């Protein structure tokens, strides 16, 4: 925080490199605040951004936008456009922090012909379903490139958040997608994203709380949005999707039993996960998750670690390259892609 304070005082708003380095520091401070919110152990301590600093960051960003607009009029430099995009994104993050942000709609362009608009909420409204996570973007990218097939079977999506994965699956030709999450505010936002992307004929949004299955907590059977398959113990899916749904220790206990309940016994049935690898601090979450998947009768057919470089190395399409570069400009840089199947005896 001290470094950011110094940078705010000394940086030249007319210099692209000065503005870029202030934005890097702001990203780090805002990112640390979000990470500390996410730390279930509290070991990181609460890293809040004091209201005074939020105001100063907001004021500085507004000043930098004005300087960049002047620079743009003079130089027509494409790097200035990029900087203005970054400033706009940071402005939205700061506004969300202060709780008075308008809804933010992000456009994700996967290929020349595949674009989705995804509305985000605030953390206060939707906890971890507030934004589109990079693992979701990576998952959707793998769908768009055909690495994860949509096939013809109905798909169950767990922890859909803002909905990028289910929506891209629908746009890639899936016949039916059941998108699920557990908070009403998240479901309402996902529904509005499904509607605004014209996927409502294929994708439906439902409530499914993993603890109903893993911990036997009561299912609100009269809920209008309840996943219908919950009420029929014989119904199952041949395809399950999950992006970034293992980010706390407890998810290692919750997600595998949900997969065991819903994945069909067909030898062709598969579960696809993309999970963010958040370094040593969260390594135990991943270990527990993988152990429990084995315990619940699943084996990985694919288990592949992905980085930005690895993904870019396989990518020539400029839209996909831009998408990946934009998505990876956050703290999480490594992902694990799994394809699980049942262990056949
Ligand atoms: C990190 S977010 C990922 C969201 C989305 N898949 C993406 O990649 O953008 C994790 C999602 O899991 C959902 N989730 C967490 N615990 C859950 C539970 N017990 N039952 C159902 N969903 C849950 C959260 O609400 C959130 O939307």
UniProtKB/TrEMBL annotation:
Listed SUPFAM superfamilies: S-adenosyl-L-methionine-dependent methyltransferases
Transmembrane segments: none
Name recorded for this polypeptide: Uncharacterized protein
């Amino acid at each position: 925080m001290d470094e950011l304070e110094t940078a705010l005082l000394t940086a030249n708003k007319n210099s692209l490199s000065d503005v870029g380095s202030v934005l890097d520091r702001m990203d780090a401070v805002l990112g640390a605040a979000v990470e500390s919110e996410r730390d279930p152990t509290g070991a990181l301590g609460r890293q809040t951004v004091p209201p005074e600093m939020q105001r100063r960051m907001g004021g500085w960003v507004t000043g930098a936008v004005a300087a960049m607009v002047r620079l743009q009029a003079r130089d027509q430099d494409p790097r200035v456009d990029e900087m203005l995009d970054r400033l706009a994104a940071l402005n939205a993050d700061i506004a969300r922090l202060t709780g008075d942000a308008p809804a933010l709609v992000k456009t994700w362009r996967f290929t020349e012909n595949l674009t989705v608009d995804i509305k985000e909420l605030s953390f206060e409204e939707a906890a971890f379903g507030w934004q589109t996570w990079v693992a979701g973007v990576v998952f959707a990218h793998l769908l768009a490139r055909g690495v994860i097939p949509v096939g013809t079977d109905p798909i169950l999506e767990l922890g859909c958040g803002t909905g990028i994965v289910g929506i891209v699956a629908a746009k890639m030709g899936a016949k039916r997608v059941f998108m699920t999450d557990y908070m009403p505010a998240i479901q309402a936002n996902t529904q509005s994203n499904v509607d605004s992307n014209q996927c409502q004929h294929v994708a439906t949004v439902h409530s499914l709380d993993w603890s109903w299955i893993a911990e036997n907590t009561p299912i609100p059977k009269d809920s209008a949005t309840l996943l219908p398959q919950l009420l029929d113990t014989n119904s199952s899916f041949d395809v399950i999707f999950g992006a970034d749904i293992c980010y706390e220790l407890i998810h290692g206990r919750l997600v595998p039993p949900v997969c065991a309940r819903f994945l069909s016994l067909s030898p062709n049935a598969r579960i696809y996960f993309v999970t963010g690898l958040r370094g040593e601090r969260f390594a135990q979450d991943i270990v527990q998750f993988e152990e429990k998947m084995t315990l619940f009768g699943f084996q990985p057919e694919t288990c592949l670690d992905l980085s930005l470089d690895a993904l870019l190395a396989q990518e020539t399409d400029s839209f996909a390259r831009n998408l990946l570069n934009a998505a990876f400009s956050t703290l999480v840089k490594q992902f694990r892609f799994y394809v699980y199947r049942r262990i056949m005896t």
